[in-house]
Amino acid sequence: MAQRVNFDLDHLLIESELESPVDEEGVHDSFSRLIAEQRDHRGASDAVELQQLQRQLHEEDPYDVASLSSPGHVFRDRRQGQRNVGREEDVNLGDPLLGERWSSATMRVLSSMPSRTIGRSRGAIISQYYNRTMQLRRRRQSRPAIRDFPHSARPSIRGYGIEVDTTDAEVSKRDRLVNNLQNLSVGDRIRMLRAMPLNLTEKRNLRQSTLHQGKNPISASHIPCCSQLKYYIIIGARQSWYSWLSFLHSLQLWQVPLKRVSGRFGTGVLSYFLFLKTLLFFNFFLFLVTGAFLVLPQAIHPPVLPAGRRSFVGLELLTGAGYFSDTVMYYGYYCNYTLSSSCRDEDGGQNVSLSNGTRPDCTSKRLSYNMPLAYFSTIGVSFFITCIILVYSMSKSFGRSFRIDNSHSILAMKVLCSWDFKVIKKSSVKLMSENICTQVKELLAEVNHKHVKNTGCQKLWRMMVHGLAWAICIASTTACVLAIYYFSDHMHRRSSRSAPQQPLLDEASLLALPVVVSLINLLLPGLFNLAAWMEDYDSPSVRTYVAIGRNLMLKVSVLGVLCYHWLGRVAADPKIIGQECWESFVGQELYRFLLVEFIFTLLDTLFGEFLWRLFSEKVLKRRRKPVFDIARNVLELIYGQTLAWLGVLFTPLLPAVQICKLLLLFYIKMSSVMMNCQAPRKPYRVSQMTTVFITLLCFPSFLGASVCVTYTMWSLTPSSSCGPFRKLKTMFQAGKRWVEALEKDNPNLSVLARAHSYLVENPFFLFVGAGIFLVVIYFHSQVVDGQRKIIALLQEQIENEGEDKKFLITRLQSIHERRKTPAQRLTSQESR
After folding, report:
1. What are the backbone angles phi and psi of residue 604, rounded to the nearest 5°?
2. Which of 160, 281, 352, 754 is the one with CA 20 to 30 A from 573?
3. Backbone phi, psi, residue 539, to 5°
4. What sequence ranges are listed for the domain TMC (predicted)?
């Protein structure tokens, strides 16, 4: 941005007398509109005014500095001249324009510039908003055009800054503005007063004048009862609405803890908790959908359970098997017929057993609920709506975070305009001050960050170090993935060979694979942090993004191997492992992985943060605490959410388990961060961190889970003895059979059958829909990127225009210096 050069000798006095408005953007916008109105309505007269000003410059003495301002300026110039000697020594020596004594002609031209006069004249602002109120009234009712008004009622910029508005003229403008405000509606009047670039005192006086002159002399006793009742109802409804909005605002989750974290640790740690809050809402939506359309109908109409059901022993809380296998938690419990009151047998009053297949007479055209169709549609619709929400959130986040913002301007706004004077509570004031202080530190760190230019040897050395670090990370990830692949194959073969002699021991052995995977996910990020320490990144934000990339590589590889294990080995031949319902077994596996991952997260919080803090304080006698690892914790959240999305088909209640896990995780992590962690030694601002998290949640996580679920529903053969899709070749055939039944009952619905065959059965349209979403995201990112480039060019243009102004002013001053006579030059040198 071009540096603003101040040529007004009375700048300090004037600025001390004026108040700076809070909404600075609105003020600049108002001034630009005023200039535009001048051009539209008085283009010819402005040219005349400039010609008159030019003639005055030639007629008057161009070297009389005392005559460049109004009489009020003369006295201040004389008083200011006595103090200019000491002040000139403090002028910035880096800019030659600031330490120059300018001629009166140069100062007169500069003081006549609209950008230097409009903001200092209250009369110009009042004239501008007088014209705006007239325009608004003309839109509400037929009024004459502005050209029909007197010339004095139009906005004018001539003379502002050269002579101060007289008291009578300003009072006249003010009275006309008050009259116009009285003729506006209450809403328009409030909006107009809010938009005025005046201080709060001026706005309050205008509002009081408007209300005082607009009071109705009729007393309340003369108002009809119906009107009074109407007014009371309106006021009561408005107060109730505002109270309801305030109550809804108070229901926002975790406001105070998030502010406390933001104030102490900055935006990086805050982004983790905001992301956790986002995941909580996604799982809450899934839980509502599956609970309302799957769990609740099946719980109301429970099936007949097989004999010999196992009792609850407590181990089921860890393994998810045993007693939980015959509940609404898993896929195998759900029936494959239409639920209705006619599906009750006469003896026990319960539905038909799952093992008996579908009963033909179990159909009723009243109050019927097709469970296979509901299961298929609920999963598909929930994934589709989640995809829309994710795409919308990602696009909105792109628009917020990838905008061009100058750190210097943000720093100025944060320092001068960020305090909320409505906050009076002591604890809230403390939180706000901590928050602003931390954000100012981040902005200062970004402003003062300098890119070090390395030599060729240093660049080569850093490339070698980075290459070695990435080679270590990739090799360790590959080794761990291969270990998981062979260990899962070993457990699969062991399950097929072993006989069920000790049920509890066999059930406990199912935890071996989740424990190994969680242990790898816990230890390997430590190796990644060691590699990052070896690389010694200058920027903490770059280090965070690199750590996110390496942890993402690990999680995606592990999930890929696990999906192959579940959908390639277990689903291909479930009889080898002794499972009649492989969908329920996969659901149990996903439950175990989700629970064991949470347990290892708690252990890491205990040993990695709490005990390390105690060891550092008690044994090492240091006050240094560990720093919160954003990359690893965020990727753990994404890993757990991917497991939840994968398991919602096999375990409809898995989102409820994920909700409980996220709630506990928030409070545990929040307490651990506040007690055991310290803020980063190098504060840094992560404006794009939330966007990166949402992007990773959409593409590697949700897209991968959607592909696996779609492959399961379209390609894999369901179990023949359990679940709502038994005796079907694929889960997808449930929708096809329902459409065929509709067409058979009503031949007029054959169009629906053809639409289903072309749109749903054909995977081409599925890929087209996914491609449209990707194209929308791509174009949105390209539009944002184009806006960033345009703003960068505009900023460069502003800098060039600033340099041009400095050059023209210097040239103007040199011309006047050459026109001086030798005697005048000698006098000017003596005055300096």
Report:
1. -65, -40
2. 352
3. -100, 125
4. 581-687
